[in-house]
Design a protein that fits this description.
The chain is mainly beta. It has one domain. It is built from one helix and ten strands, in the order E-E-E-E-E-E-E-E-E-H-E.
Length: about 160
């Protein structure tokens, strides 16, 4: 099973090691709705999802690919995938597409992130994308459609 590094701590550790940032991908399933997630994501998560995270494949590389997400309750997970070029220049940021007609509708989260609501996908799909990413971080998952972030009309506050 592929392993990933996360910026969030998902599972508590022992008193001597309060948490960890490296997981087998399967250990994260519960945070995306578990095996019982429905198409409309109406099932309760078997573990409380994190508000946002950055996931990187192991072993860590200075200029490696990353998969990030923002979780919006009752909407799902907005995913972003980025892989730098070999010379360190980033390729365009790709965003998951859940509902094309909602790509220009934004919600500002408490962490100040602006999330296009059309990028939200159900937890079970988000987890499958994480699985694909862990297995092949150099290629965006085929589980969902992707759109370049630069193709969206971001709110003016986004650049502030």
């Amino acid at each position: 099973m592929p392993r990933v590094h996360t910026s969030q701590i998902y599972l508590p550790g022992a008193a001597s090691a309060p948490g960890r940032h490296e997981y087998d991908v399967a250990e994260l399933r519960a945070f995306f709705g578990g095996e019982d997630a429905l198409e409309d994501d109406s099932v309760l998560m078997s573990a409380t999802p994190k508000d946002s995270d950055v996931i990187r494949p192991l072993p860590l590389r200075p200029h490696g690919a990353s998969l990030s997400y923002e979780h919006i309750p009752r909407r799902g997970f907005s995913l972003s995938w980025q892989r730098p070029e070999k010379d360190g220049v980033a390729r365009p940021l790709l965003l998951s597409v859940g509902r094309q007609e909602m790509l220009q509708v934004f919600q500002q989260k408490e962490n100040q992130a602006h999330v296009p609501l059309g990028t939200c996908i159900p937890g079970h799909k988000a987890f499958r994308v994480v699985e694909d990413f862990a297995s092949d971080p150099e290629r965006p998952s085929g589980i969902v459609e992707w759109v370049e972030a630069g193709q969206l009309d971001w709110p003016e506050a986004f650049g502030d």
